[in-house]
Design a protein that fits this description.
Elements (H helix, E strand, L loop, with lengths): L7 E13 L4 E13 L3 E5 L6 H8 L7 E10 L2 E2 L5 H7 L4 E4 L3 H4 L6 H12 L4 H14 L5 H5 L8 H13 L5 E5 L7 H17 L3 E6 L2 H7 L2 E6 L2 E7 H6 L4 H12 L31 H5 L4 E5 L2 E4 L4
Parallel strand pairs: 3-8, 3-9, 6-7, 7-8
Antiparallel strand pairs: 1-2, 1-4, 4-5, 9-10, 10-12, 11-12
Helix pairs in contact: 4-5, 4-7, 7-8
């Protein structure tokens, strides 16, 4: 694939983000590694609570309390973001790394007009004056397929539809032409008929602006249609990672097999992972020992490492 020869933009190493509650420590992200290359779409898939969104918030250094990044490294363009202060991160967020949140109505400011919100990034990061920033906002909304753009720019978020709000959020994220766009469940708040319109809009926008994307989703169809590479996360750990086409043709981890087989039984890959029911598997060894047809004694007592099979294929299993 084309991204094979592109440069590495983001590298996450041994990231751990824990939540310290009075009852227990929740290991939301527990030692994950991932890489995002220039001009690629990377999908992080898993059920609700698997650690997808916390991974994204950790990259942005926006983990809410009582969450704490306790270990790891996050390199963006060769710089470890975890060693940088908040002032440095404010220059990165929305400029070089932008994020689309699950609920655009909550992400957008209810008392500021659409045009000003989209233009804000250019004013803050690129030092545009407001007039020219608004002109750029008009251009990017037009490129995202919104009609009557001048009218939309004068409205407030509650005055437009959910699908249009999501496009506004995409425009706000892309206005500064970031290197990486993190899209956290970008279709969760829009109606099913509009979901794939939003996904297609995202994909076209990334191609237009040469932006890499980290797509966070529990929808296998979205990952299948958009991504170059895919990683499966379960209880804060990545269990398999591969090029997307190869992953769906030949998943190796028992959990990956479970997901893909379920999609095939439905006759397509339009599977919401949350409909499968959560696998809460415990034990001193591999969490999937009780459902794996290939298990051996070692699987019951020892945790498998994430093995690298080739440059883009990794699997957390002794007997893949």
């Amino acid at each position: 694939m084309e991204f094979y020869l592109k440069k590495l933009l983001l590298e996450v190493k041994k990231l751990k983000t824990f939540f310290y509650t009075p009852e227990k420590i929740i290991k939301a992200v527990n030692g994950i590694d991932l890489q995002i290359y220039e001009k690629e779409i990377f999908a992080l898939v898993g059920q609700t609570g698997a650690g997808k969104s916390i991974t994204a918030l950790s990259i942005m250094k926006l983990v809410p309390p009582p969450g704490i990044i306790v270990d790891g490294e996050i390199f963006f363009e060769g710089v470890n973001l975890l060693e940088k202060d908040e002032e440095y991160m404010r220059k990165i967020r929305g400029n070089k790394i932008a994020m689309i949140f699950q609920d655009p109505l909550k992400a957008l400011n209810p008392v500021i007009k659409i045009g000003k919100q989209i233009a804000e990034g250019l004013v803050l990061h690129k030092k545009f004056n407001e007039f020219y920033a608004l002109k750029e906002a008009e251009k990017i909304l037009t490129s995202l397929g919104i009609r009557n753009v001048e009218e939309v720019l004068q409205k407030y978020p509650h005055q437009i539809s959910g699908g249009m709000r999501q496009r506004v959020q995409i425009a706000s994220a892309l206005i500064c032409k970031p290197s990486i766009l993190i899209a956290d469940e970008p279709t969760s708040s829009v109606d099913p008929p509009i979901q794939f319109q939003v996904l297609n809009t995202l994909k076209k926008a990334c191609i237009t602006y040469n932006t890499s994307m980290m797509l966070i989703t529990h929808n296998l169809a979205a990952a299948y249609l958009l991504s170059n590479r895919i990683a499966v996360i379960h209880e804060g750990e990545i269990v398999e990672e591969n090029v997307t086409d190869r992953f769906f043709k030949n998943p190796l981890h028992p959990y990956s097999k479970c997901l893909v087989n379920a999609a095939e039984r439905l006759g397509n890959k339009n599977l919401n992972l949350n409909t499968l029911g959560k696998l809460k598997l415990k034990g001193s060894g591999c969490k999937f020992y009780h459902i794996c047809p290939y298990k051996k004694n070692i699987c019951k007592t020892e945790k498998p490492p994430l093995k690298t099979l080739d440059r883009f294929h990794k699997v957390k299993c002794f007997h893949y």
